[in-house]
Amino acid sequence: MSFPFVADSLLFLPLGVMPYNTLVDAATLRRHVSDPGWIVFDVRHDLLQPHAGGEAYLQGHIPGSFHLSLDQVLSGPKTGRNGRHPLPDRRELSERLRELGVGARTQVVACDAHGGMFAARLWWLLRWLGHDAVAVLDGGLPAWIAAGGDIVDTASLARETGSFRERPSLVPTVSADSILSGLGKEKLLVVDARSPDRFRGENETLDPVGGHIPGAVNRFYRQNLEPDQRFKSPDSLRSEFEALLAGRPAKDSAMQCGSGVTACHNLLAMEIAGLSGAALYPGSWSEWCSDPSRPVAR
User: Which of 111, 257, 264, 289 is catalytic?
Assistant: First the structure.
């Protein structure tokens, strides 16, 4: 597992202003939606219909927001051995964010319509690039609409190029080789965010092999949410994740899913709960099962 140097988050913000770095509610975003120091990224997506998110954005979105494609912007090229959503190139993603107006002190808000399923990926990626002022819109677009927020179908005006630059990562990652070398040693707890049936190796429709990494435990990402698709309270999340960790510190765990997307939802939930330090296995199950020499449990 790699443990990064953690930069001082206050370097990214005006003096005396603390960032939103986990969640922001719709009422707060409404007060800042026209603030030049804030920017909203719409990351709606459909794993089975890749163009659906962009089409939904064109039909209606938060004023001033920009759409970022999970496949084209928030993921890198696939080789067939590195998973369905490999991490993007750090420099290319940084340049794209800079072009869209993100500065070193910009408050970024990630929004989707899926309870944070895809927004959490952007949240994690910004932290991976060393930017702490990033939060997920709690409840997403439905919460925005319920709070009386406007929806527009006109293209957002281009912003002045920002000053964003990648900095040392704020988040750790772990590789397939690292997980493989630790199997059976019980030092690192691998937590799988996929649905229980896919974890068991049933009803697999996205990857060619069903099952899970031996020794992994299941924490379906939707367990982080209330029925209204907002996140559970910090106390509830802390209690549930502490039970899952069974006495381990958060830094001795790694989150994974099918392709490194919904695993970020569990990482966000842990951060909300005050349990920092868990790693992401970016390649996740789709990378793991691409090598037939790696063991599979069902």
Answer: 257
pLDDT in tens, 105-147: 999 999 999 999 999 999 999 999 999 999 999 999 999 999 9
Query: In this structure, are residues 43 and 113 in contact, taking their beta carbons and an 8 Å threshold?
Result: no
- Alpha carbon 17 to chain centroid distance? 24
In sequence order, what are the residues at sequence separation of 6 or more whose Cβ sits closer than 8 angstroms to the Cβ of residue 117?
A: 221, 261, 262, 265
Its pTM stands at 0.94
Told to judge if 289 belongs to the known catalytic residues of this protein, a careful annotator would answer no
Q: Which CATH superfamily is domain 176-288 in?
A: Rhodanese-like domain (3.40.250.10)
Strands (E), 159-261: 189-192, 217-218, 253-256
pLDDT tens digit sequence for 195-206: 999 999 999 999
Q: Six-digit token pair at 75? A: 């993921």
How many CB atoms lie under 10 A from the CB of residue 148? 9
d(CA 20, CA 270): 15
Tell me if 13-146 shares its fold with 176-288.
yes
What is the architecture of the domain spanning 13-146? 3-Layer(aba) Sandwich (3.40)
Q: Where are the domains of the chain?
A: 13-146, 176-288
